[in-house]
Amino acid sequence: MKKRGNGLTDQLASRCKFFTGVQNGKCEKGITYESVRQEASDGRGYRFPCVRIQQTWTEFRDCKTCSLRELPTPEEVAKEEAEFTKHADEMMAVYVAIREHHKSVPKGNESNVVYTMTCPVCSKALRYRVSGYNGHIHAKCETDGCVQFME
């Protein structure tokens, strides 16, 4: 059986350090994505040297359209993965705490009500709203850099 890699690790390892997303037009080094794109050999859009999407590692490694492309080191990938995982764990802890907190809230017209509780990550005030339409949560901690999300 073929062993599969870690999806997040592979994704982080196969993205140029300076990539900002093609929607931004250019990378952190000022290179426009349009200037380095290649037509896909299978006729399905474009390939970019910044990210390995639907390319073999050989095709990605051998791309010659951007001389400034720099892939992260294994140590940089591990650090970014740890930060991502920590943030995801914190968001999940907040989500679970909000769902638990919201069980004690009187039911009724909740669509425009903002609730406040103690943030389980930093112990400051966490404000959240639960949509009356679909039950989705919007939450933001008052601490800069702490948890905030929209479901």
Characterise the protein shown here.
With 151 residues, this protein is of the alpha+beta class. The chain has two domains: 7-61, no CATH class; 93-150, no CATH class. The chain has helices spanning 7-13, 33-36, 57-61, 74-103; strands at 38-39, 46-47, 115-118, 125-130, 137-141, 148-150. Strands 3-4-5-6 form a four-stranded antiparallel β-sheet, covered by helices on one side. A two-stranded antiparallel ribbon has the order 1-2. A hairpin with a 6-residue loop joins β4 and β5. α1 (7-13) packs across α4. The radius of gyration is 21 Å and the shape is elongated. 13% of the residues are buried. The mean pLDDT is 85.
Helix and strand string, N-terminal first? HHEEHHEEEE
N- to C-terminal separation? 37 Å
| Structural class category | alpha+beta
Would you report the number of β strands?
Answer: 6
Q: What's the alpha carbon Rg, rounded to whole Å?
A: 21 Å
Widest β-sheet, arrangement of strands: 3-4-5-6
Question: What's the overall geometry?
Answer: elongated
The poorly predicted ranges are none
Keywords for this entry:
15% strand, alpha+beta, 2 domains, four-stranded antiparallel sheet, two-stranded antiparallel ribbon, 4 helices, 151 residues
Give me the secondary-structure topology:
Elements: H1 7-13, H2 33-36, E1 38-39, E2 46-47, H3 57-61, H4 74-103, E3 115-118, E4 125-130, E5 137-141, E6 148-150
Antiparallel strand pairs: 1-2, 3-4, 4-5, 5-6
Helix pairs in contact: 1-4
